[in-house]
Amino acid sequence: MRVLITGANGTVGSAIIDRLGDRDEYEFTCLDVEDHPDRETVVADITDLDDLRGHFEGHDAVIHLAAAVDLNGSWEEILSTNVRGTYNVLQAAAEADVETFVYASSIHTVGMYEIELAPEIYDPDYDLAVTHEDPVRPDSFYGLSKVFGEAAGRLFVESRPNPLGEIHPTYVTNTREYPRRFYSLRIKTVLGDEYDHPYGLAEMGVDEGWWERGSDEYAYMVDRLKCTWLSHRDLGQLIDACLRDETVDYDVFWGVSGNDGTWVDLSHTEEVLGYDPGDNGAEWTAPPE
């Protein structure tokens, strides 16, 4: 299977390549706005549709990761990269007859739950399990843009030639045939190799001088990441499950490890994709030595 990854040089893309790049069944094309020193990269800008055209030809799947990820980013930046850019990637995939589209959505599509209920929400005994069917509650322009991406994917997958024809001409005639499958992964927290553990955000803060180990801020970030951690191992398994699946037309899945305090309902992801997370933030009592 030939798979193109947009934003391939970022944290999530690098983790996917590290986990699945050696598999015989996959041939990855890395696309990013900048070159990478250690791997071949197609340099293209997702905000320019003409710049993308041609790079998608011959691929079976796209994993769309490229995005402006700053939660405080301006609307103009989010609009250009996450809204227009996502449309451009979908359109380029459609024109190239790409069958499968895996979209990196975000927990920030429902982030208002966490804003309203933190820190109590991080308690594994807290009675909340947000499902993939609950209403979206974006917490930022970034979260809003991910809601757009999910809806755009649904439009591309479900809009086929108008079955009513001239009988009901007010329906927009649409001739898209691709993508045929769209997987929206609402990813929680993925960190770089050095911090790929439930103490990663807290330890990052220590290394950056933001707080001290043992401080209230440190403890808070540990509690949060024990709920939101998506390990590289589980990320690789989840992406592999999407690429292998042939049952889904359009669906939304949580992208998180099997953490006791996750506060989302993983059962749909497990039942539909066969996802079986191997990591649980609650099993860690200290950072790795």
Low-confidence stretches: none
Total tally of structural domains: 1
Q: How do the strands line up in the largest sheet?
A: 3-2-1-4-5-6-7
Q: How much β-strand is present in the residues?
A: 5-15%
Rg, nearest Å: 19 Å
What's the SSE blueprint?
Blueprint: E1 2-6, H1 11-20, E2 27-32, E3 42-43, H2 49-52, E4 61-64, H3 75-95, E5 100-106, H4 112-117, H5 141-158, E6 181-187, H6 200-208, H7 216-228, H8 232-244, E7 250-255, H9 267-273
Parallel strand pairs: 1-2, 1-4, 2-3, 4-5, 5-6, 6-7
Helix pairs in contact: 1-8, 3-5, 6-7
Provide structural commentary.
The protein is α/β, with parallel strands linked by helices. The protein has a single domain (2-283), classed as NAD(P)-binding Rossmann-like Domain (Rossmann fold). The chain contains 9 helices and 7 strands, in the order βαββαβαβααβαααβα. It has helices spanning 11-20, 49-52, 75-95, 112-117, 141-158, 200-208, 216-228, 232-244, 267-273, and strands at 2-6, 27-32, 42-43, 61-64, 100-106, 181-187, 250-255. Helix 1 links the parallel strand 1 and strand 2. Helix 1 crosses helix 8. The longest helix has 21 residues, at 75-95. The relative contact order is 0.14. The mean pLDDT is 94.
